[in-house]
Design brief:
The chain is an alpha+beta fold and 269 residues long. It is 52% helix and 20% strand.
């Protein structure tokens, strides 16, 4: 029953999204279709409110599939990163922590991809000028693609790796965000790698196909993929623009604090 409910929810959401796109681009929709969609939205709102009152957020999670929730959350983080980028702010960097950016290696590729998307937008506009309805739909999709590409790069810029007194937080844009407690890190080393075939228990956060720091763990940490699949990770390879400083920062926090020397005993009487 739960699977059937989730399948229906996904189908209805897809139909509503198509209806919203039609309204946005000015495509005329028959009045009875509008009435059906408005009625379905009203029923959905009533059911969601009733579910929230009955079981809170947990009840709402039962309706939407985990993969759909994670995809929506990822897109919200991507577009939120655009705002952080414009405001020149960073996400999840507390006072006293060391932040290590990594996005510079992919910047040229992302800007080139954005330029290609913009050129494609103008090209499709010229090709579809005789089909205004189709042109508007494609224009919405093209603008969304340009914003998504910029948002992916903005997420990498505004979400650096973070080293605190308690943990190392390794990230790759809005895709991956893994917190590793310091007591679980057995060793850290500076290591350049340009080929990345993940073995069992490894997590590679490569940028522009390169990693420069390796963290070996004494006990595994649980990492969840974008679609919610859990993995036990024993080794993390990541990239940073200043890998030497990152390795030193982690190693310094792994070194136990030195205790004060014991006082010299006095001469026996």
């Amino acid at each position: 029953m739960k699977r059937v409910t989730r399948a229906l929810a996904c189908g209805v959401m897809g139909a509503e999204l198509g209806f919203a796109v039609c309204l946005l681009v000015g495509v005329r929709v028959p009045w009875f279709v509008e009435a059906v969609v408005v009625g379905v939205v009203a029923v959905e709102a009533a059911l969601l409110i009733a579910a929230y009152r009955r079981g809170g957020r947990a009840a709402l999670r039962e309706v939407l599939p985990p993969a759909a929730r994670r995809l929506v959350g990822h897109e919200l983080r991507v577009f939120g990163s655009l705002g952080l980028w414009v405001a020149r702010r960073r996400h999840g960097v507390p006072a006293g922590a060391d932040a290590f950016p990594y996005a510079r290696a992919q910047a040229s590729m992302m800007y080139a991809f954005t330029f290609v998307c913009v050129v494609e937008t103008f090209g499709m506009g010229a090709l579809l000028r005789d089909w205004p309805a189709l042109h508007r739909i494609v224009l919405v999709l093209d603008v969304y693609t340009v914003l998504m590409v910029l948002g992916l790069h903005a997420a990498a810029v505004t979400r650096p790796h973070v080293v605190t007194a308690e943990a190392v937080r390794v990230r790759r844009g809005a895709w991956t965000d893994l917190r590793i407690p310091l007591e679980r890190i057995a060793a850290v080393r500076r290591e350049n790698r340009y080929t990345h075939t993940e073995a069992d228990g490894e997590l590679h956060l490569d940028v522009a196909s390169q990693t420069s720091v390796t963290l070996e763990l004494s006990s595994p940490v649980r990492h969840f993929t974008l679609f919610g699949r859990a993995r036990e990770v024993w080794c993390v390879r990541l990239h940073a623009e200043d890998p030497d400083r990152l390795a030193r920062s982690v190693a310094a926090r792994l070194t136990p604090a030195r205790t004060a020397p014991s006082p010299v005993p006095g001469r026996p009487g």
